[in-house]
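User:
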Amino acid sequence: METITAFGDSVLKGVILENEHYKVTDSSFHKICEESFGIKIENKAKFGSTIKKGESVFERNLETIRMSTGKYVVLEFGGNDCDFNWKEVAEDPEAKHLPMSTIDDFVSIYTAMITEIKKLGKIPVLLSLPPIDSGRYFDHISKGLSAENILQWMRGDKQFITNWHERYNIEIFKLAIANEVPVIDITSVFLEKKNYSYYLCDDGIHPNVKGQKLIAEAIKDHVGRKSISFGEAG
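Assistant: Predicted structure:
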């Protein structure tokens, strides 16, 4: 059985928000893909992981990648990288606040990981980001904080959250082009829906079980269109 190693954040981990608590669903897209393709996915994703934290996990698992029977290594980052320390924003909306990963750092570290995977003789596969619901996410991040101050920092436009998140998503596609590696578009399958928020948890950012199935469908469609077959790397 081919084994694929995967690194990322809670989306790849399969984390959903249910009854105001986060949990890993048994219906995650990586589980669905394992069954559909007859493969084993060594899922190294971590809840709350940024590209920098992911790099640390990645470096600790270089031998796992090297010894893997599969030729692909999946990378899924960006959702936490574009986030901010909302407590600090709420306390001082007029100050300059940096995201968890600047665009420059995000691109630089992501590129380094892609390069290292290639050196190991494997093929990096990037996943784009599912879209978010700005309204739900704003309500989520502002709980217990000054929503008024956070909105002031956003210059009165909650849509800033979606736009900024998409800024990182665009970089993922650019990274794939620049490094000549495949990227699987899991964004469009949500945007094609008349109300993609139906596929997101109440926090507005984590795909729910229906969203996880939607991601699996996007991956299966990509694999089918590209006529990708799975077998030992040899």
